[in-house]
Give the backbone structure.
Amino acid sequence: MLRHLRTVFDLDRDEILSLFDLAREMKKYPGRFGDSLKGRTLAMIFEKPSLRTRVTFQTGIFQLGGQGIYLAPSDIKIGKRETTQDIARNLSRWCDIVMFRTFAHKNIQELAEGSSIPVINALCDSYHPCQALADIFTLYERRHDVHNLKLAYVGDGNNVLHSLINISAILGIQLSYATPEGYEPKEDVLKLAQDYATQHNSGATFEATHVPAEAVKDADAVYTDVWASMGQEDQAAARRKIFEPYQVNAELMKHTKPGAWFMHCLPAHRGEEVTDEVVDAHYSVVFDQAENRMHAQKALMYMLIKR
């Protein structure tokens, strides 16, 4: 059966936990999976620049015995030189799986609709499901049971927060978030997650505030992201003034539960959304998250192709 990963909601609770267990096994015993996707090809379509996404997907498929083909923005000019659905039909004849890093979520939807092979949303302006899977896998390694874990997010209500909201709804995570007024996550994203949590009795809760210290109180982990994402560079100066009270620093971390972890999807703008003191602290897991992008995505590609 053809499966895609357009948002985290394309997976259910059992599938996510199975993915975590497989990622942990692949991480511990990489040699066992060296030929598991032998001869398989991953098409990697990029409309946005990337470090972690490109390297983790391309290295990941290589470690599973396959190969990745990098398609830069100038290579195919998706939707301009050729329709998105025609590109999907072509890639479906040559490759086994596609990952797409783009701007509009509708581009992901259109590619998936025209594709007869799995499509992975490697990032769009609305969601970042691969990041959320790697993030919660990082916590899963430390706690195993993430149900009722309290995760606090401080900063912009962006694509990363949207996917954390989604995965929290599925796994029963207690998510609190502090954003400036006017920068909250989208209401339809939150409502969908709340409805999912209620219908599936997952136990997830969502607490919104404009006060960072309230959001991080007794949190098991504190997460932040850049204040201006790609495509928002012209807003960076204005956003810096608005978001300044939302910096994650040592003083803010004092409000958390003892032993709380600091998280960031990277790249970090040190001295803006987070201080060096925090991002380099012993409790920071940011580079574990970055490493786990590869392991979680290896498990995801394996599951979508093989199952």
Notes: The chain has two domains: 8-128+293-306, 131-289.
